[in-house]
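Students often ask what a holo structure prediction actually looks like on paper. The answer is less mysterious than it sounds. You provide the chain, you provide the ligand, and the output is a string of discrete structure tokens encoding the 3D arrangement of the protein together with flavin-adenine dinucleotide.
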Amino acid sequence: MHLETGKADQAFREEVADFLGQHLSQELRQAGRRTMGICSPHEASQAWQKILYAKGWAAPSWPVEHGGTGWTPMQRHIFATECHLADAPMLAPMGLEMVAPAIMGHGNEAQKSFYLPRILSAEDSWCQGYSEPGSGSDLASLQCRADKDGDDYIINGTKIWTTDAQYATRMFCLVRTSWEGKPQAGISFVLIDMDTPGITVEPIITLAGNHEVNQIFFDNVRVPQENCVGAENEGWAVAKYLLEFERGGRAWGARLRGAMTHLRQLAEARGMIEGIFAQRLAGLAAAAQAVEFTEQRVIAEMSATGRIGPASSMLKARAGTLVQEISEVAVEIIGNYAVPHQPAAREWGSNIEPIGRPDELTVVGHYLDFRARSIAGGSNEIQRNIMAKLVLGM
Ligand SMILES: Cc1cc2nc3c(=O)[nH]c(=O)nc-3n(C[C@H](O)[C@H](O)[C@H](O)COP(=O)(O)OP(=O)(O)OC[C@H]3O[C@@H](n4cnc5c(N)ncnc54)[C@H](O)[C@@H]3O)c2cc1C
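The corresponding structure tokens follow.
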């Protein structure tokens, strides 16, 4: 199966590769290689977004009228693939890929003209306030409340597992504005300035030793009602629309290809490419290629419908499991060198010498970090429920 057609795509790939060759410094590439979680270290991610913004390439999936590139779905895929293969830092998706489509699809003109340029230029950084301690998969049960007071809402409650809230200037947040009827019917989608008095961000350090997620507390936080996206109590539709974007469009094929290349390098460096390891590597490579083909099907669907659709659930669940499997084999390959786990040496700008080979530094971090992939962004079981219902029609 040839994933590309024609010379135009090839020429485009070369143009992208040239640009990356000229603009990706060694420091940025290192940050890309050492990425834990869903985005690269904040400083690197911001710096890279600003370079892309200057070129007009920060938001390939956006419509041209808002600053997008006008690329076809295949060109966007080529761009994401080349960025990944060149170790470009991964941009934070919360602004560019999550809240932006929601604002474009459901926001009013004032919201579009205020927020979208600031997202594009990286002036604002966003976090996603959906999950609560008692509401994750069953998101509609959320309790964080917004009560009306004059032209404002007064928000009280908590959000948890909030990625990069420590850097965020704004949050898109689901709050309960009504307790009547079905739980889904009383939810609103509001945009919150993280500097508002009454907001506390408490870090949660992950098993991998990273400060990626947080718990947020709201104590009488005053937010203008005009910050509601879509109609009040109709935030569920906005949230569902946005989740489709969260689960797709992440160049899974390229990521898996990169992970397999790294795995092969590790195996070769330790002379472990014979026998049983060769079989395991071949099995993983075949599975990674199958994900890449699935991704092509999702791109084809996007080209036809303009939406990512429920197949994005399939992609997320399978690719997430596969990166876990690849990271398990990587830990086996480096053996004893998995013991000295060095999270501080992976940090942006760190001058701590890695113990062992430099390309082994991320192995344990990825192994631990990838455990969260079966949960983050909607657990695998929930993705399978979506597939059963919407893809298989069960
Ligand atoms: C690294 C990381 C980053 C995250 N970042 C964010 C963020 O930025 N913003 C945000 O809002 N949230 C974030 N989350 C939260 C994430 O969306 C939730 O963890 C996820 O939706 C699962 O919810 P939960 O943790 O409450 O688990 P639960 O919903 O309690 O699930 C526990 C287990 O039960 C299973 N289960 C639950 N319901 C069903 C069902 N109906 N059928 C079958 N099995 C079921 C689940 O699959 C899971 O295995 C993040 C999570 C992680 C791990």
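The chain has three domains: 6-91, 126-239, 248-391.
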